[in-house]
Design brief:
Bound molecules: nicotinamide-adenine-dinucleotide, magnesium ion
Oligomer: single chain
Number of helices: 16
Strand order of the largest sheet: 4-3-2-1-5-6-7
Structural class: alpha/beta
Radius of gyration: 20 Å
Shape: globular
Strand content: 15-25%
């Protein structure tokens, strides 16, 4: 029997890598749903090649154009509700949650509600609502399989021992394009500078998050929910080569690492084929040319997002939703050249500081906190 896969965010970096993997894996992995926001031409092209029974487009104004070029027997679902419906449909067993940002939350929650296997790239969904998604998955029997490379590595390394034998985890970080830059130079960084990631090729939002290291802050919270860890047992370690994707230290002192070339197709495939390992399509590590692996502690003075990430992880409740939304809005403002690079984290921290955390929030409270944080960023940006 084949595994039937729906890709939410199919036109993005993770989405297209997922299609690469499914085509390399052959007919045992069949794509039965594709969803994206606006890029209808690419979406139609993908639909022509994999012929899924259903396709969803989030922006309703583009439904007409898409309909006109889609195969007649492909069902078209429209609007954000269309993506939610696509995530729920019975023909898929496995949902790849690869929409960027909190915009992916409703469809990710829908997939978990429907008890699917969920390959999770959309880390923002867990940062906002991990406190709801994790218990929900337990109730519905949904499984959350990490696609984020660090969390895939931790997941794989965790298999070397029992949960209660884990002492801590190391999340590795490339350090981003500004790892070696002085604070003065970082303060003047342009959009172009921030989009030049040294080791990974990814969508623009996560690339900017990597430059501020907010990506690692989000990943601390993601790991906290995926592996039920105390934030203090999560250590960030800068490793510029991005070969060790993360590590788990057990109580006997053994450290288990997962290594590979920096290619998202490896963790995407592992999530889909788990618990099996099938032939992979990424370039192999070559230890005859790999001379050394470097490590350094992160520098919270130049990258204050890390400290903020720990604070927010410890605070819990609505704090994650606020930090995530403020960061999304600030990244947007930076991309529109309304604010400077260091303002991204500064604004985010300012909004988090203004927020009064609500514990045990329901979804409505989390969405309200998200909306509030975005308004705060808009207000502060306008004043400047
Ligand atoms: P991307 O910008 O390349 O693609 C985003 C996708 O989401 C597109 O298909 C777009 O159509 C869709 N989308 C965006 N806004 C939407 C909306 N409002 N409604 C519906 N669909 C919408 O992003 P990406 O780099 O592929 O990242 C996707 C997710 O995976 C992010 O959460 C990111 O943090 C995570 N992730 C990405 C990588 C990577 O290598 N790219 C690695 C680890 C984790
Ligand atoms: Mg990552």
């Amino acid at each position: 029997m084949s595994k039937r896969i729906t890709i939410l965010g199919s036109t993005g970096s993770i989405g297209t890598n997922t299609l690469d993997v499914t085509s390399a894996l052959g007919p045992a992995y069949r794509v039965v749903g594709l969803g994206a926001r606006r890029r209808w031409r690419e979406l139609a092209e993908q639909a022509r090649s994999v012929r899924p029974p259903a396709v969803a487009i989030a922006d309703p104004s583009l439904a007409g154009e898409l309909r006109a070029v889609l195969n007649k027997d492909t069902e078209l679902l429209v609007g954000p509700e269309g993506l939610v419906e696509l995530a729920r449909r019975p023909e898929a067993d496995f949902i790849v949650a690869a929409i960027v940002g909190a915009a992916g939350l409703p469809s990710t929650v829908a997939a978990v509600e429907a008890g699917k296997q969920v390959g999770l790239a959309n880390k923002e969904a867990l940062v906002v609502a991990g406190s709801l998604i994790v218990p929900l998955a337990r109730r519905t029997g949904a499984t959350l399989l990490p696609i984020d490379s660090e969390h895939s590595a931790v997941f794989q390394a965790m298999a070397a021992g029992r949960r209660e034998e884990v002492r801590k985890i190391y999340l590795t970080a490339s350090g981003g394009p500004f790892r070696t830059w002085s604070a003065e130079d970082i303060a003047k960084a342009t959009l172009q500078d921030a989009l030049r990631h040294p080791t990974w090729s990814m969508g623009p939002k996560i690339t900017i998050d990597s430059a501020t290291m907010m990506n690692k802050a989000l990943e601390i919270i993601e790991a906290r929910w995926l592996f039920d860890l105390d934030p203090d047992s999560i250590e960030v370690l800068v490793h510029p080569e991005s070969i060790i994707h993360s590590m788990v230290e057990f109580r006997d002192g053994s450290v288990i690492a997962q290594l590979g070339t920096p290619d998202m197709r490896t963790p995407i495939q592992y999530a889909m084929t788990y618990p099996q390992r099938l032939e992979g399509c990424a370039r192999r590590l070559d230890f005859s040319t790999l001379r050394r692996l470097n490590f350094e502690p992160p520098d919270p003075a130049r990258f204050p997002a890390l400290t903020l990430g720990y604070e927010v992880a410890r605070a819990g409740g609505t704090a994650g939703a606020v930090m995530n939304a403020a960061n999304e809005a600030a990244v947007e403002a930076f991309r529109e050249e309304k604010i400077g690079f260091p303002d991204i984290v500064e604004l985010t921290a300012q909004v988090v500081a203004r927020h009064k955390v609500v514990q045990d929030p329901d979804l409505e409270t989390l969405l309200a906190a998200d909306a509030w944080a975005r308004e705060q960023v808009a207000g502060i940006t306008k004043q400047r």
